[in-house]
């Protein structure tokens, strides 16, 4: 499941406990992510699913679910 | 008028102690921090020894994100800065952070990260390389990370002069405060170089000792010396303008009074004949301090244990101090902790400052056989209690970089 994958990557990169990582969690306001975190997460996802995520799409991610949905869409393209 | 500069805080993480107190107590006793390499499998390497840190786990000092984001050389530099900053009792709320600077030396940057990411590139392709590669491994990032961690908004600089970098960083910080560019500078060096690539590079350059006995490998000035032993760690000094330190009633370790820096302009790796570049650095430091050579009480030598360095440094000392050179005690911290490359001068500055403070010269350990070309007083195997007023520390680096710095005992004025 993609959410599980995103969660595992974020836990690894950002050191956030699993129970704090919800689909509704806000990347910046709640999880304290920065551009370097996002860059790493995106590279991991691109390599895991053999997809490409555009910079302008990354700029629109606000919540964890935005990333999950975007990856789902890319896989189904 | 130039400002006077004093040291008001010390931090160190070394192969013989992960803080200043442990480092210095072990240095006085002559503890050997060199052992068989444990952090990776050395395979069929001819060189088997290094001076690795003991029990340093970044997880004890950093959260998970910082553990992943920073290379070991940043972890070490920040950890030593935490100790030095706490030791200086600086109050973040009371200092002008725009006049708090950072000047750090290192030799090889984030070499662990460079190798890891190179492997990803070669094995998986360009898309496998981490976005952290650049900000994790660039040599200046330790200074950047320290500035971020301690909110230091003044001068921020990195000195890359190979094995002279630690001393050059302290010297450049001294100058910056003298010329009133900052009130306080976090200065020193950090190095995390014990990796297969560095081991192979230095081995094939014939720079490292091939000896198998940890206690007879880094043996500066000994006739049987055959190369240096790699070490890792960091040391950080808090340099402060004297008036600023007095105003906040800071504890003062010593004053920095002289700095000299020169180039051999001679060879990639070998010192110039008779160590003439090193001799000029010492002369400049003495001139800068305004003291005659006879005032000097002790030299903390570069003393790497390579055949060339120790002979050239001895000759350089003779050039500068003439007949008095036989009367100055000299010792090499590298006999205990190996060679920390860009952090060496910083750790040796801590040793020099503690020597001044306690009137005690740590020994050059592992010494057995006298070399005709190295015939000065190297304080061998046993430390010495002696009144010290001025201490000079030397550092010389590949590329012909030479740096000498002079510390003066602090007495209430």
Automatic annotation (TrEMBL), chain A:
Transmembrane segments: none annotated. 4'-phosphopantetheine is transferred from CoA to a specific serine of apo-ACP by AcpS. This modification is essential for activity because fatty acids are bound in thioester linkage to the sulfhydryl of the prosthetic group. This is Acyl carrier protein. Carrier of the growing fatty acid chain in fatty acid biosynthesis. The gene is acpP. HAMAP family: Acyl_carrier. It is found in: Cytoplasm. Pathway: Lipid metabolism; fatty acid biosynthesis. Its main location: cytoplasm. The modification O-(pantetheine 4'-phosphoryl)serine is found at residue 35. Belongs to the acyl carrier protein (ACP) family. It comes from Marinisporobacter balticus. One of its GO terms (molecular function) is acyl carrier activity. GO terms for cellular component: cytoplasm. Residues 1-75 form the Carrier domain. InterPro entries: ACP, ACP-like_sf, PP-bd_ACP. Keywords: Cytoplasm, Fatty acid biosynthesis, Fatty acid metabolism, Lipid biosynthesis, Lipid metabolism, Phosphopantetheine, Phosphoprotein.
TrEMBL record, chain B:
Residues 2-409 form the Ketosynthase family 3 (KS3) domain. The active site is at residue 163. Coiled coil: none annotated. It holds the Pfam family ketoacyl-synt. It comes from the Bacteria. PROSITE patterns: KS3_1, KS3_2. One of its GO terms (molecular function) is 3-oxoacyl-[acyl-carrier-protein] synthase activity. One of its GO terms (biological process) is fatty acid biosynthetic process. One of its GO terms (cellular component) is cytosol. Keywords: Acyltransferase, Fatty acid biosynthesis, Fatty acid metabolism, Lipid biosynthesis, Lipid metabolism, Transferase. Its EC number is 2.3.1.179. Pathway: Lipid metabolism; fatty acid biosynthesis. It catalyses: (9Z)-hexadecenoyl-[ACP] + malonyl-[ACP] + H(+) = 3-oxo-(11Z)-octadecenoyl-[ACP] + holo-[ACP] + CO2; a fatty acyl-[ACP] + malonyl-[ACP] + H(+) = a 3-oxoacyl-[ACP] + holo-[ACP] + CO2. PANTHER family: 3-OXOACYL-[ACYL-CARRIER-PROTEIN] SYNTHASE, MITOCHONDRIAL, POLYKETIDE SYNTHASE-RELATED. Involved in the type II fatty acid elongation cycle. Catalyzes the elongation of a wide range of acyl-ACP by the addition of two carbons from malonyl-ACP to an acyl acceptor. Can efficiently catalyze the conversion of palmitoleoyl-ACP (cis-hexadec-9-enoyl-ACP) to cis-vaccenoyl-ACP (cis-octadec-11-enoyl-ACP), an essential step in the thermal regulation of fatty acid composition. Belongs to the thiolase-like superfamily. Beta-ketoacyl-ACP synthases family. This is 3-oxoacyl-[acyl-carrier-protein] synthase 2. It comes from Marinisporobacter balticus. The lineage of its organism: Bacteria, Bacillati, Bacillota, Clostridia, Peptostreptococcales.
């Amino acid at each position: 499941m993609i959410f599980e994958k995103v969660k595992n990557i974020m836990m690894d990169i950002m050191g956030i406990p699993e129970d704090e990582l919800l689909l509704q969690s806000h990347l910046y306001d709640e999880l304290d992510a920065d551009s370097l975190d996002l860059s790493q997460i995106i590279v991991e996802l691109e390599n895991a699913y053999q997809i490409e995520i555009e910079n302008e799409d990354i700029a629109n991610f606000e919540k964890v679910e935005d990333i999950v949905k975007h990856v789902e869409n890319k896989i189904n393209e | 008028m130039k400002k006077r500069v004093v040291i008001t805080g010390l931090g160190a993480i070394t192969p013989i102690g992960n803080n200043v107190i442990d480092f210095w107590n072990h240095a006085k006793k002559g503890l050997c921090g060199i052992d068989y390499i444990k952090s990776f499998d050395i395979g069929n390497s001819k060189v088997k020894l290094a001076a690795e840190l003991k029990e340093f786990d970044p997880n004890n000092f950093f959260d998970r994100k910082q553990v992943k984001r920073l290379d070991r050389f940043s972890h070490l530099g920040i950890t030593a800065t935490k100790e030095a900053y706490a030791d200086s009792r600086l109050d973040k709320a009371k200092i002008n952070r725009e006049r708090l600077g950072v000047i750090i030396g290192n030799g090889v940057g984030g070499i662990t990260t460079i190798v890891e990411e190179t492997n990803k590139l070669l094995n998986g392709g360009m898309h496998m390389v981490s976005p952290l590669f650049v900000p994790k491994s660039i040599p200046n990032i330790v200074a950047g990370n320290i500035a971020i961690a301690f909110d230091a908004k003044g001068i921020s600089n990195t000195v890359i002069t190979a094995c002279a970098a630690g001393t050059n960083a302290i010297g450049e910080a001294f100058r910056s405060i003298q010329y009133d560019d900052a009130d306080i500078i976090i200065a020193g060096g950090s190095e995390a170089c014990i990796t297969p690539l560095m081991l192979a590079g230095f081995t094939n350059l014939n720079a490292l000792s091939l000896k198998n006995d940890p206690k007879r490998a880094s043996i500066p000035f000994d006739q049987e010396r055959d190369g240096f032993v790699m070490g890792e760690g960091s040391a950080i000094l808090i340099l402060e303008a004297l008036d600023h330190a007095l105003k906040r009633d800071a504890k003062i370790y010593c004053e920095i009074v002289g700095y000299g820096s020169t180039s051999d302009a001679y060879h990639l790796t070998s010192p110039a004949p008779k160590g003439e570049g090193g001799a000029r650095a010492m002369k400049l430091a003495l001139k800068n301090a305004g003291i005659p050579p006879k005032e000097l009480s002790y030299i903390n030598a570069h003393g790497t244990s390579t055949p060339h360095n120790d002979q050239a440094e001895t000759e350089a000392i003779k050039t500068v101090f003439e007949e008095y050179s036989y009367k100055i005690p000299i010792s090499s911290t590298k006999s205990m902790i190996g060679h920390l490359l860009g952090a060496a001068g910083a750790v040796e500055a801590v040793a020099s400052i503690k020597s001044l403070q306690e009137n005690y010269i740590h020994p050059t350990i592992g010494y057995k056989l006298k070399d005709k070309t190295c015939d000065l007083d190297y304080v061998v195997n046993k430390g010495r209690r002696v009144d010290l007023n001025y201490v000079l520390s030397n550092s010389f680096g590949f590329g012909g970089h030479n740096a000498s710095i002079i510390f003066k005992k602090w007495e209430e004025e």
